């Protein structure tokens, strides 16, 4: 299976069908059918999303409206629906449809001119189940009797207090005007007293294909932790937010189609104009073990995770439960790691802490397969007070990253109410830099940046330090510019005190404490012009440093020398981004050699170590799985 997947990946890259069915008959399997980017997708993309979504993107998104936002060409879908039993989901972002097909159907579909590729559906399982078995109400007790307990919050005071929520409620913030989409396993007892105030603006059950949501206690519990309100019993951080509810998770099974429903729900949330997505589901292995994700895939590349990252690029704060893979139901092969889509580059992956700020025994850890720190932050996730999901009045205590996640999403909603102009990066940046560091010093793979404190985050820009974001804009032919974080840039701070730090993988940097006064921030990284920025402590607004590539000619990169010989080898010259991944292919689309991270010189040997033949090769450069440059290379004797 891994071999087959590798081949299919190339089919996507070059639009060449190389993934042939091995036999004409056999059992059906789930596949994604990716269409050619032609047809009616030339219509204006603004029609595909709501006015609210359009405004959110204009304000906070880094990606302009583009062809990815257009519906899939209807005649393509009609033809497809005549050849398969059922189209399971359709994705406009990926211009694709997910279907179940026999090997002969797959082979037939793959031959159609409008089809770019047919790939097995990404595989995975596992809902993060509440892993904290709800306790009988009689056993509810305060996690720490020494905590203060303002009566309004009832038993839920501790979970809000630990992350700094009550002071913001005291300032009149409740998430009002912010739309949060909850993607979960269903929502039971929406007639509960804690939901009486709630403004549910939209609901869709993606499993049933119906506006009637399957009742499930998990989603109800998550929703109540986020936005429930019954004075004296439970108050969620974002009790004043509007919510949209989506069900994508099938509780009784772990099957691949759940990931497809999840992707569809994310696109739906975007089209509604959601500001925040919170999802306490995650996938790694399935009921059918032959379809499991491997740990190597935990690198942000799954379709599910790419959908999550695309939502962030469109201006949505995406908050994902990190997973409970160290819990009693954990899959040992997964080694306690986070599940997908918590591995996204831009999502906020949430781990769970106990009342004494230890890591919950089940809370999944990092890093991702490509070495990034996860989770990003932590929040209370054991003994969290929630509705019981079974009665119209009952409460219970639950445990799981499932319940830490909506606390962070609620905090994000409070930040967006206070700072409607903040982009997802700025929300992450404020939460990260004001988090209480736990465990190993600095960000780590158990607690991420630490326990969030939203009362500090809301005032992050006026605190006694400097925080900022380093980005660069990659221009691509015929495509919208891509704003990318620049990792490992050197940041020098000079003023009443001086310091040196570096940007992290998300482009974030920060330094504190610093004495008040004016500062000059200088940012340097190879391949880019040095940038300087003036700021003050206390800081009025986050620093945004946009780095320009040194090369100012139209061509960002070039292969030199070209033609290349065995003696010279070839180097990709230009503004080589630290995160750039460089690979060479033959003209048939077969991978010949992938360079190690940070390398830009190819000695013209294949992965096997043998010198390659004379001929034409294609060099492809990617950042975060997005192609940013492609060029041809001639190899001569
Ligand atoms: Ca499931
Ligand atoms: Ca730490």
- Corresponding CATH superfamily of the largest domain: Peptidase S8/S53 domain
Ranges where pLDDT stays below 50 over 5 or more residues in a row are: 1-24, 123-149
* CATH architecture heading of the largest domain: 3-Layer(aba) Sandwich
The helix content is 10-25%
* Average pLDDT figure: 83
Describe the structure in your own words.
The protein is α+β, with helices and mostly antiparallel strands. The radius of gyration is 25 Å and the shape is globular. The chain is built from 12 helices and 30 strands. The strands form 8 sheets. Strands 6-9-5-10-11-12-13 form a 7-stranded parallel sheet, with helices on both faces. It folds into 4 domains: 2-120, no CATH class; 153-458, Rossmann fold (3-Layer(aba) Sandwich), CATH 3.40.50; 466-547, Carboxypeptidase-like, regulatory domain (Immunoglobulin-like), CATH 2.60.40.1120; 557-635, Immunoglobulin-like, CATH 2.60.40.10. The longest helix is centred in the middle third of the chain and has 18 residues, at 401-418. Helix 7 (217-227) packs parallel to helix 10 (401-418) and helix 8 (257-272) packs parallel to helix 9 (303-313). Residues 437-440, 442, 444, 447, 450 line the site of one calcium ion.
């Amino acid at each position: 299976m891994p071999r087959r997947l590798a081949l299919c990946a190339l089919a996507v890259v070059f639009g060449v069908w190389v993934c042939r069915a091995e036999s004409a008959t056999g059992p059906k399997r789930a596949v994604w059918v990716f269409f050619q980017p032609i047809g009616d997708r030339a219509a204006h993309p603004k029609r595909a999303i709501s006015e609210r979504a359009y405004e959110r993107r204009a304000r906070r998104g880094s990606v302009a409206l583009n062809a990815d936002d257009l519906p899939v060409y209807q005649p393509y879908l009609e033809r497809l629906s005549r050849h398969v039993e059922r189209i399971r989901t359709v994705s406009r972002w990926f211009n694709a449809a997910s279907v179940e097909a026999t090997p002969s159907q797959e082979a037939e579909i793959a031959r159609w001119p409008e089809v770019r590729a047919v790939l097995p559906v990404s595989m995975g399982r596992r809902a993060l189940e509440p892993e904290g078995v709800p306790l009988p109400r009689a056993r509810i007790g305060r996690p720490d009797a020494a905590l203060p307990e303002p009566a309004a919050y009832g038993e839920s005071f501790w979970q809000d207090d630990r992350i700094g929520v009550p002071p913001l409620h005291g300032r009149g913030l409740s998430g009002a005007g912010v739309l949060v989409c909850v993607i979960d396993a269903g929502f039971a007892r929406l007639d509960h007293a804690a939901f009486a105030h709630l403004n549910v603006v939209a609901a869709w059950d993606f499993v049933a294909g119906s506006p009637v949501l399957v009742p499930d206690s998990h989603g109800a519990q998550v929703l109540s932790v986020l936005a429930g309100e019954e004075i004296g019993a439970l108050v969620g951080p974002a009790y004043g937010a509007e919510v949209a509810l989506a069900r994508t998770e099938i509780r009784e099974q772990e099957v691949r189609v759940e990931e497809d429903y999840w992707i569809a729900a994310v696109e739906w949330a975007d089209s509604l104009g959601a500001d925040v997505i919170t999802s306490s589901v995650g996938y790694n292995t399935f009921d059918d073990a032959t379809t499991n994700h491997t740990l190597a895939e935990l690198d942000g590349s799954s379709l599910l995770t790419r959908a999550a990252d695309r939502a962030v690029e469109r201006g949505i704060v995406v908050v994902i439960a990190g997973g409970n893979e160290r819990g009693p139901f954990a899959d040992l092969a997964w080694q306690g790691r986070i599940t997908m889509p918590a591995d996204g580059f831009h999502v906020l992956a949430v781990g769970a802490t106990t009342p004494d700020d230890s890591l919950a025994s089940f809370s999944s850890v990092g890093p991702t397969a490509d070495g990034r720190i996860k989770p990003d932050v932590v929040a209370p996730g054991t003994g969290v007070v929630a509705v019981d999901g079974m009665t119209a009045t009952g409460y219970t205590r639950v445990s799981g990253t499932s319940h830490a996640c909506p606390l962070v999403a609620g905090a994000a909603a409070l930040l967006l109410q206070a700072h409607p102009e903040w982009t997802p990066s700025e929300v992450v940046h404020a939460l990260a830099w004001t988090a209480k560091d736990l465990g190993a010093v600095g960000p780590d793979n158990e607690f991420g940046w630490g326990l969030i404190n939203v009362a500090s985050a809301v005032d992050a820009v006026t605190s006694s330090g400097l925080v900022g974001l380093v980005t660069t804009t990659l221009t691509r032919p015929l495509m919208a510019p891509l704003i990318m974080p620049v990792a490992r840039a050197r940041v020098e701070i000079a003023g009443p005190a001086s310091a040196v730090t570096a940007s992290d993988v998300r482009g974030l940097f920060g330094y504190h404490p610093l004495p008040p006064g004016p500062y000059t921030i200088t940012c340097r990284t190879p391949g880019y012009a040095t940038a300087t920025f003036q700021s003050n402590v206390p800081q009025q607004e986050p620093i945004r440093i946009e780095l320009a590539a040194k090369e100012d000619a139209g061509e960002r990169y070039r292969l030199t020398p070209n033609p290349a010989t065995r003696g010279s080898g070839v180097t990709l010259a230009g503004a080589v981004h630290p995160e750039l991944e460089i690979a060479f292919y033959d003209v048939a689309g077969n991978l010949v050699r992938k360079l190690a991270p940070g390398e830009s010189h190819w000695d013209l040997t294949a992965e096997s170590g043998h010198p390659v033949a004379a001929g034409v090769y294609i060099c492809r450069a990617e950042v975060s799985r997005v192609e940013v440059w492609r060029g041809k290379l001639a190899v001569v004797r």
